[in-house]
Amino acid sequence: MTHELRCYAYRDGDTWEAICVDYDIATFAPSLDEVKASLVTCIELFLEGVAEAPPEDQQRLLRRRSPLSLRIKLMALTWLSKLRNDAHRALQFTLQPGVPAHP
C-alpha cells in the first residue's frame, strides 16, 4: 500500500525550494519542474536508505516530520500565494512515488 506525501514548493528569487513535510526532506532547483523531480529523487534515495536500516530504526525514520513551525510557515505562504493569485510563488502538492504507507 502507498500513500500521498504532502509537499510544498516556493520560489525565492531565481531558485525554487521543494519540501516534503512528511519526511523533512528539501531540495533546490532553478525551475518548478526540476525541483519536483529532484524531490522525488531525494525521497526515493531516503526510502532506499530506510530499507537498508535496521528494522528497529525503520519506523522512526518513516515517522520523521518537518518541525511544526516550518509546516505552519509553508501553509501560510501557500495560502497567501493563492490569495494573491500568484501560483508561481508558492504551492502545495502531493507525491506518490511508490512510498510505503506506515502506521
In helices, the fraction of residues equals 40-55%
Number of E strands: 4
The biggest beta sheet is recorded as:
4 strands, antiparallel
Question: What is the terminal-to-terminal distance?
Answer: 11 Å
Structural class: alpha+beta
Q: Which fold name fills CATH's third level, the topology?
A: Double Stranded RNA Binding Domain
Number of domain units: 1
State the order of secondary-structure elements, H for helix, E for strand: EEEHHHE
- CATH architecture assignment: 2-Layer Sandwich
Low-confidence stretches: 99-103
Please give the oligomerization state of what you see. Answer: single chain
Q: Shape, please?
A: globular
Radius of gyration, in Å, reads 14 Å
Short overview:
With 103 residues, this protein is of the alpha+beta class.
Descriptive account of the structure:
By secondary structure, the chain is an alpha+beta fold. The protein has a single domain (5-94), classed as Double Stranded RNA Binding Domain, CATH 3.30.160. 44% of the residues lie in helices and 24% in strands. It has helices at residues 32-52, 55-62, 68-83, and strands at residues 5-12, 15-20, 25-29, 90-95. Strands 3-2-1-4 form a four-stranded antiparallel beta sheet, with helices on both faces. Strand 1 and strand 2 form a beta hairpin. The longest helix is centred in the middle third of the chain and has 21 residues, at 32-52. The radius of gyration is 14 Å and the shape is globular. The termini are close together. The model is unreliable at 99-103 (pLDDT under 50).
